[in-house]
Hints:
The protein contains 16 helices and four strands. It is mostly helical and 320 residues long.
Amino acid sequence: MLLYSRSNTGKYSSDYVQFETIRKLRSGYGNFVRGSPQANQYPISLGDEKGRYQLFSVDPCGSLWFSRFITGSKYRMGQEWRPNIAMSMDLLKAVIDQTIDRALNASSEAERHRWVVIRVYIVISYVVSLRGSEGLLLDLDGLRRHRGEGGIEYFIIALLGKIKGEHHDLAHLLPCVPVTGSGIQVQQAVHDLIDLKEKYGFRDGPAISDISGKAYSTRDIDDSLHEILEDLYDSDRDLFPKRIKDKETLKKSYQAFRTLRRTSDTRAMDMGVPDDDIDVVNRWKAVEKAKGTRPNRPMRHHYAELSLLIKPFLRYTTAM
Length: 320
């Protein structure tokens, strides 16, 4: 672990690799030791009355000395954390306006298609608080099948996922207001995308994809997002906080992975959205993490019928 740290270049330092990276060597080694045939030939375990077991193993990573070594390394090396930052509402609206302008003035159909898709990704990820890879789950077939549902009060955002016990659909269905309180046209962006996809013969599959139907990656999203942000940085630096002193810092600060999620959560707190509404909007994520088992959440959420919980979604998305 020490040799790996000192002999490699880290993400934030040219002298060493951070503790959060080198600690993974312990996990890899420990899993190998505990999963080896020698460790499982004569398994010895300690069980309790509830049927839970603790396994005994001969693992150097489990020694008191190694525990002290890990603790000391963590405190001595420290942790350098550079999280993605949230956008201000002015900056977010400027980014969305840029996607619309670029789609209208695109020099090719592929370019126009790209900016229509990027607009939907940004808008949806912000409005329903999605991280980078979660925004890529937007399902074209689900959007089409539920188009028109909710009338003028709301429409349905469909995210592909494994459903068990929630409802009889192949996607997570999130109600959303057509226009947010800040004036973001969510439904119009989604309908423009559906119409454009149908024009090229796509009626199902990933909605966040290129003109040939290939799904975008978060790196593709980052490239498009940074393209817009760099142009805005040149034209109006007042949109950005003072700590963004150059374009390199800009690229590290704003990324699809967490920027839009942070922007949404910040807005929700600023607008005083109740905690229960936030929990309901993020309920689908707990279902995904449970991987078919009963998700871990408050008892009142276990007994609440998701298909009837419309108003929490509308309150949250209206606040956006």
